[in-house]
Amino acid sequence: MEDLLKEILREVRNLSYLFFAFGVIWTLLFLYMYSLSRRERAQQ
Hints:
Elements: H1 2-43
């Protein structure tokens, strides 16, 4: 039973890293798109 609990906790920790990585990637993507739109407006 303890081994099962340890395995579940390890999986949850891995999922939290995955969600954190997705959050960072989406944030960087939106910041990049925002900077592109600012450059586009500055050229007009």
